[in-house]
């Protein structure tokens, strides 16, 4: 009968840990040790490129030779990641002599410690031991990961603090996260953004935020619709700022969920300043911006070797001849590279006319992508000279991204 292992969470910060081997197993094991702050000594004559990058960056020490027992002097843990059973056994012997736990990738029975299959969710780490069967451990781990991803908000929210409250600068430890939701496909939010979203007490969401993300919020969350419909009535930015600050000062975890990336024409900076002025801690989680994702969804890479060595992202919401315009369209007309225009549909005739008037060739390829990465995505392909009319003919509506440049046709077969 096998005896059950004793689960333990090792706090390795600053402690010497030896890894023997430099192949695929070591490459997979080392990052978690570095993440735990371990002082890693890697002993191996041959090293994978990824491990060499860690060594070159000074994140670990590399002894480029075979293992000798003295490598374990002073170590707290050793991981054996080599196939040769005799060499591996010699590490086990040296570890046992020094009373150091020894993980063996080659022989679980000979090991004095097992590494669990792991899934990490912010501060929570779940480790699964499969009773000697790594596949069973991974299967159970996958099931737990799915469960936690689906219901993380309810399961992983930190318990209410007990004991005296620590004054963190806010009334009860509220905070704001400015989270980029990505361009439209609900799967294009980052892992971090998704975790914060599912942990939120209050979600303040823009109109462009993928609806499916909101569909999966936990019950009880307060959802504030901060819709700012283009060219229509809008709740003022001041009011949004006030909601963020008020809720955080009242102790809530607030997620400000914004389409694409929070800082790309997203007024994220204003919201950050408002929170900072009120003493509310803010986390910014970047998002996949439509300025890159919408062209990609239309088969357009914003750069391509030998074709475009630059891409410029501009807002077209102010007409080129307006005194309020901050964009030097005549200068953009002189660039060779990719030009990406957001919020540019209404002013597209004036924008294309200005670019043409200042010398951008009329046959420059153009594409317009409406509601990119969603089920409603529509694409119009044209040229700079004709794109404004083509958009009108097709009846394209915001939100849409216009992309101009030779990259538009570069992937055409
Ligand atoms: N912060 C956002 C941009 C906000 S400005 C980002 O990084 O993507 C709003 C403009 O973004 C829209 O008018 C449109 O030009 C563009 N946009 C956002 N999502 C889009 C989508 N799914 N498809 C096409 N354009 C989109």
TrEMBL record:
Its EC number is 2.1.1.107. It catalyses: precorrin-2 + NAD(+) = sirohydrochlorin + NADH + 2 H(+). The active site is at residues 206, 228. Residues 176-387 form the Tetrapyrrole methylase domain. Keywords: Cobalamin biosynthesis, Lyase, Methyltransferase, Multifunctional enzyme, NAD, Oxidoreductase, Porphyrin biosynthesis, S-adenosyl-L-methionine, Transferase. Pathway: Porphyrin-containing compound metabolism; siroheme biosynthesis; sirohydrochlorin from precorrin-2: step 1/1. One of its GO terms (molecular function) is uroporphyrin-III C-methyltransferase activity. Gene3D superfamilies: Cobalt-precorrin-4 Transmethylase, Domain 1, Methyltransferase, Cobalt-precorrin-4 Transmethylase, Domain 2, NAD(P)-binding Rossmann-like Domain. It is an enzyme of class 2 (transferase). It comes from the Bacteria. The keyword S-adenosyl-L-methionine applies. Transmembrane segments: none annotated. GO terms for biological process: cobalamin biosynthetic process; methylation; siroheme biosynthetic process. InterPro entries: 4pyrrol_Mease, 4pyrrol_Methylase_sf, 4pyrrole_Mease_sub1, 4pyrrole_Mease_sub2, CobA/CysG_C, NAD(P)-bd_dom_sf, Siro_Cobalamin_biosynth, Sirohaem_synth. CDD domains: SUMT. This is Uroporphyrinogen-III C-methyltransferase. It comes from Micromonospora craniellae.
């Amino acid at each position: 009968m096998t005896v059950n292992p004793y689960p333990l969470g090792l706090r390795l910060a600053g402690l010497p840990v030896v890894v023997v081997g430099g192949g695929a197993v070591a490459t997979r094991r080392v990052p978690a040790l570095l993440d735990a702050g371990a002082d890693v000594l890697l002993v191996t004559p041959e090293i994978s490129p990824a491990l060499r990058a860690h060594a070159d960056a000074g994140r670990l020490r590399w002894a480029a030779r075979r293992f000798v027992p003295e490598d374990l002097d002073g170590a707290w843990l050793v991981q054996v990641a080599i196939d040769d059973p005799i060499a591996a056994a010699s590490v086990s012997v040296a570890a046992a002599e020094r009373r150091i736990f020894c993980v063996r990738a080659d022989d679980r029975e000979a090991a004095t410690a097992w590494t669990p299959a792991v899934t990490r969710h912010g501060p929570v780490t779940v480790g699964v031991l499969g009773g000697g069967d790594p596949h069973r451990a991974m299967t159970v781990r996958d099931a737990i990961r799915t469960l936690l991803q689906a219901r993380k908000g309810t399961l992983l929210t930190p318990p209410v603090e007990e004991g005296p409250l620590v004054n963190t600068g806010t009334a009860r430890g509220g905070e704001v996260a400015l989270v980029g939701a990505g361009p439209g496909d609900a799967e294009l939010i980052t892992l971090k953004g998704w975790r914060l979203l599912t942990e939120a007490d209050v979600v303040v969401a823009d109109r462009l935020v993928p609806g499916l993300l909101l569909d999966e919020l936990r019950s009880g969350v307060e959802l504030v619709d901060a819709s700012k419909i283009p060219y229509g009535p809008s709740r003022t930015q001041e009011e949004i700022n006030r909601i963020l600050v008020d809720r955080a000062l009242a102790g809530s975890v607030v997620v400000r969920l914004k389409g694409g990336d929070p800082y790309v024409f997203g007024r994220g900076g204003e919201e950050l300043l408002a929170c900072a002025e009120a003493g509310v801690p803010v986390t910014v989680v970047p998002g996949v911006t439509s300025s890159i994702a919408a062209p990609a969804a239309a088969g357009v890479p914003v750069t391509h070797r030998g074709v475009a060595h630059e891409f410029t992202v501009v807002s077209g919401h102010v007409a080129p001849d307006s005194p309020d315009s901050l964009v030097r369209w005549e200068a953009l007309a002189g660039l060779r590279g990719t030009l990406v225009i957001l919020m540019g549909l209404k002013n597209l005739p004036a924008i294309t006319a200005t670019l043409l008037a200042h010398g951008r060739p009329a046959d420059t390829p153009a594409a317009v992508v409406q509601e990119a990465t969603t089920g409603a995505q529509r694409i119009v392909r044209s040229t700079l000279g004709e794109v404004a009319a083509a958009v009108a003919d097709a009846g394209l509506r915001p939100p849409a991204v216009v992309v101009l440049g030779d990259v538009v046709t570069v992937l055409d077969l």
